Amino acid sequence: MRVTRSRRSALWGIVGALVVVVALATLPYVVYADVTDLLVNAFILVVLASMWNLLAGYCGLISVGQQAYVGVGAYTVLVLAQNGINAYVAIPAALLVSAAVAVPVSFLVFRLRAEYFAIGTWVVAEVFFLALVRVRSLGGGTGTALPGLALIDPVLRQAVTYWSALAVAGAALLATYLLLRSRMGLDLTAIRDNELAARSVGVRVTSAQRAVYVVSAAGCGAAGALLIISQLNVLASAIFSVQWSAKMIFIALIGGLGSIEGPILGTGIFIAIQQSLAQLGAWYLILLGSLAVGIAMFLPKGIWGLISSRLHLQVFPVGYWLHRQDSPSPLAGEPLSSGSRDFPRGQGRGGGS
Amino acid sequence: MTAEAALLELAGVSKRFGRITVADSLSLRFQAGETVGIVGPNGAGKSSLFAMIAGDLKPDAGDVRFDGRSVLRLDPATRCRMGIARTYQVPRPFENMTVFENLLVAAYRGGQLSRLQGYTVAARILEETGLSEDANRPAGRLGLLQRKRLELARGLATQPRILLLDEVAGGLTDPEMAALVEIVEQVRQRSVAVVWVEHVVHALTRAVSRIICLAGGRLIAEGDPQEVLANPEVKEVYLGVDIGA
């Protein structure tokens, strides 16, 4: 008996991801700032959609209040920058503060189920917004500029912002991958598939969900930090806007819930539509809405779900594959009973869970 | 029913849903290493009994003691980790996980095994329950019989001290039934208590040393399988049903 983490080698996925990251890292030297600015936007969306996917696609937690942590992350950077700390250095602090805030909030919102949870998270985000606009020193309701960065050479600043966003997106995807590959990943998939059965095989459902909620808040906080750094200012009504949740949901939904690859693909599609059709005004929004409805109805696992089930493709394998052999197992002390059959072929894992 | 300490004990357990009584002051004891069958008509409270033991359902009154300690305040996950495993009458597989992964999560959490122990135990149980061929298939693609096997296998993977089987034999062929009875016997020999709710009575009589008959949430008869099934009151509640014994 031998157990591997995917049917085929995971090496290709790792090598491919590294090549992509290195290629992306060199971009500031070869393209103009408008391209890197667009990619900063894309990296932020990848982080947000991945975090929403962790919640909804793996824990069954539908939140429409993750903008609470986008805001907390942004304002953490602002407060630190106002006290003379470099905004880039403040990104990890934004992540930690968001995670710390999420712990007590989770005890509040986890008392609610399903649609009440969704509404509860939104209310929390609104409360954060209403509290922050009362703080005059943070710009109140009219917003304020991020001090410190404006003095840096714009070309350098844009490049550093780009690399920071790339690093955050890479870290968010890596963290998601490692989380899902760990044993907690099994817990989460079990919870998503059947919460009652998960409890009855010993999974501590609420603890696992709380852990993911905190991780998701940390990711959203880091995304909020990137937002204020890339825009050089912050407006409470914009940073705490439910629009962020709408974007996370749209991207995760069209890309494919319950896979790491889905939100990446979804971001690509979203950016492409935004770039090509945004000038259509209202029609652009109607198109986005119809696309989301159509995919939710006909492709419940999103576009990545369609691709991976057709091509048996998984860039980030997180499953377990049991290979059976005649020889006694090198892993196990006791040899398994006989059985020389090949492991079944032609049955890819559904949806890449 | 000796002075020997019971592994699991229900003391005066009652549960009502409106006007329907699923448990009426039930007191039952189960010992380690014994196999007990539970029979009774539909709505007798058999599945509710399992739900109250496993923690999915809270009794209105009475106590559930495992290893001499009340488990009423413990959640299902904790009870499972202590050694109480249940299967569901309508299988509840983790559909997007493979059969092997279904067992792994049970072995890691319910059984609290290490990574390698989990692999070994899951693979062994797949062999025992005849699911090896399906190890890498998503559980959602299994047919009903395989799903029932998976329920049993997943319960076993949690390393139970008491295993609650809820109608796992329905629809099995005779050789499959014999294999199931053999698995139950193997499990019992590891001093696990097996409590088996089943409508297929001839499977029960082959596997169990004691039968409990419930109706309307009350204990109708208890004891030697043949004697219980011969009991007029038991025949009465099964009226019109071929009990096959």
Indicate the CATH class of chain A: Mainly Alpha
Enumerate how many helices of chain B there are, as a single number: 9
* Mean pLDDT, all residues of chain B: 90
The average pLDDT value of chain A, as a whole number, equals: 87
CATH topology grouping of the largest domain in chain B: Rossmann fold
Name the beta content range of chain A. Answer: under 5%
- The CATH topology of chain A comes to ABC transporter involved in vitamin B12 uptake, BtuC
CATH homologous superfamily of the largest domain in chain B - what is it? P-loop containing nucleotide triphosphate hydrolases
Q: Strands across the major sheet of chain A, in which order?
A: 1-4
Write down the domain tally of chain B.
2
Sheet with the most strands of chain A?
Answer: 2 strands, antiparallel
Order of helices and strands of chain A: EHHHHHHEHHHHEHHHHHE
Taking the alpha carbons of the first and last residues of chain A, their distance comes to 23 Å
How would you classify the helix and strand content of chain A by structural class?
A: mainly alpha
How many angstroms separate the termini of chain B?
A: 24 Å
Describe the protein's architecture and organization:
- Chain A has 353 residues and is mostly helical.
- Chain A has one domain: ABC transporter involved in vitamin B12 uptake, BtuC (Orthogonal Bundle), CATH 1.10.3470.
- Chain A is 66% helix and 3% strand.
- Chain A is built from 15 helices and four strands.
- In chain A, α13 crosses α15.
- Chain A is globular and about 65 Å long.
- The two termini of chain A are 23 Å apart.
- Chain B has 245 residues and is an alpha/beta fold.
- Chain B has two domains: 169 residues, P-loop containing nucleotide triphosphate hydrolases (Rossmann fold), CATH 3.40.50; 66 residues, no CATH class.
- In chain B, the strands form two sheets. In chain B, strands 6-7-8-3-9-10 form a six-stranded mixed β-sheet, with helices on both faces. In chain B, strands 2-1-4-5 form a four-stranded antiparallel β-sheet, covered by helices on one side.
- In chain B, β7, α6 and β8 form a beta-alpha-beta unit.
- In chain B, α3 packs across α4 and α3 runs parallel beside α5.
- The longest helix of chain B has 16 residues.
- The two termini of chain B are 24 Å apart.
- The chains are: A mainly alpha (353), B alpha/beta (245).
- The interface between A and B is large, with 43 and 51 residues.
